[in-house]
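Recall the central idea of this unit: under ordinary conditions, the amino acid sequence of a chain determines the structure it adopts. In this exercise we apply that idea directly, starting from the sequence alone.
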Amino acid sequence: MPTGMLETTREKIRLIDRDIIELIEVRTNLASEILSSKKEMNQPIVDEAQIRKVLDRATSMAVEKGLDVDSIHQIFELLIQMSIDKQNEYSGKSKYI
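Accordingly, the structure predicted from this sequence is:
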């Protein structure tokens, strides 16, 4: 691959990485809305049934796109944990307690 093409491809990746980070920020910031709804419905922060739905959905999408299911599963486990941590933060609970 010529150097110019390599740098062009790397720039495309940098832009995609920026988009991914921005989407993670948006997703994580929805934790306050999720927490409000959970409080209204008297639900705990950790909802195992919903976690399973999210992981199943991610697995299905990974299969459709031909992506490595285990890697996608790990990514979504991290995203879910980030949401749980943010909800705990908003509720006044530290993830270190």
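Residues 3-29 form the longest helix (27 residues).
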